[in-house]
Structures are given as C-alpha cells and as structure tokens.
Amino acid sequence: MSPNLVYVVVVGVLFATGVTLLLERSLTRVLMGVILLGNGANLLLLTGGRAGGPPIVGTTAEEEMSDPLPQAMVLTAIVITLGMTAFLLALAYRSWHLNGHDEVQDDVEDQRIMELAERDEGPGTADPETTDRVPTARADDDRRVAAGAPGRTR
After folding, report:
1. Is residue 116 part of a domain?
2. CB 102 within 8 A of CB 92
3. Residues 80 and 19 in one domain
4. Whole-angstrom distance, CA of residue 36 vs CA of residue 47
C-alpha cells in the first residue's frame, strides 16, 4: 500500500515549517515549531498504518484489521508534544515575566569562544611565557596563572 501523495506533501511542509520556526530566537516561535513538528510526526505515523476495520478480535477478520501500532504511537507522540508544549509555555511565560520579552539571549560562554575564534586564539594555543603548561589550557587559566590569581590548576 502506497501512502497518499497529499499526506506526504503535508508532512514535508509541517516538518520544514517546524524546523524553520525552531531556529528562531523567540520562544513563542519555537513553541509553534514544536507543535508543528509534533503534528507532522503524528501524520507521518498515521500514514504508515494500514486502513481497515477496528482491531478487535471477533469483530473483524484478521486480514481486514487496521494496524493498532501506529495509533498507539500517535497517542504517545501526542502526550510527548503536550509535555513539551507545557514546558515551553512555562519558559516563555517566565522569560516574559522577568525580561519583558521571550527572546533567547546568546550564551556568554559561546560569545567568549566566538571572540577567541575570531582572534585565532583557540584552545590549542598557549601563551609563550607558559610553554611548560598543557597546550590545551584555556586562555583565562593562562592569564590567572601568569597573574598569580587562584584558579584551576593542572
């Protein structure tokens, strides 16, 4: 049995739109992306099932029964999507309550790593005065050791 072409196109559109929305910085759009991905997964699971009569022994012949596994998987996916939706709604509400917006901010550590990469001072480079140290030490540790400040030691 081949799936209906309309279902395949709708699943593709739902997944593409969901992934696009997941890449946004607004938690509201991320929430909408999770919901669209969940609906796309549900439709994909349903297209994999066989249509037929109810899967109750004695009511329908065994070869005419529908497959109950995709139905059970869709119910599980609905519960998972509902949990993710509730969690993201709580995050968005908390962000709106604290900051007045629901934009996801850059991580401070990611910004530091980007600055090091732009200056070409990745974790594999060491200061010339600390050549006896492990060459994969972080630049912050090198500065602390050179200044005599307490910090991580190797």
Report:
1. yes
2. yes
3. yes
4. 16
Sequence letter at residue 100:
G
Q: Based on the number of CB atoms within 10 Å of its own CB, is 40 exposed (0-12), middle (13-18) or buried (19 or more)?
A: buried
Token digits of residue 24: 């946004």
CA distance 89 to 115: 33
Q: pLDDT (tens digit, 9 = 90+) per residue, 42-82? A: 999 888 877 788 888 888 888 888 888 888 899 999 999 99
Instruction: Specify whether 88 is located in the same domain as 136.
Output: no
Strand stretches in 4-110, DSSP E = none
Nearest to 89, CA basis, from 23, 20, 40, 35: 35
For residue 82, being part of any structural domain is answered with yes
Residue ranges for the chain with pLDDT beneath 70: 1, 121-154
Write the CA distances from 105 to 8, 20, 34, 87, integer angstroms: 36, 18, 19, 18
| CA–CA–CA angle 107, 111, 116 (5° rounding) | 150
Question: In this structure, which amino acid lies at residue 102?
Answer: D
Q: Which residues pair with 57 in a beta bridge?
A: 60
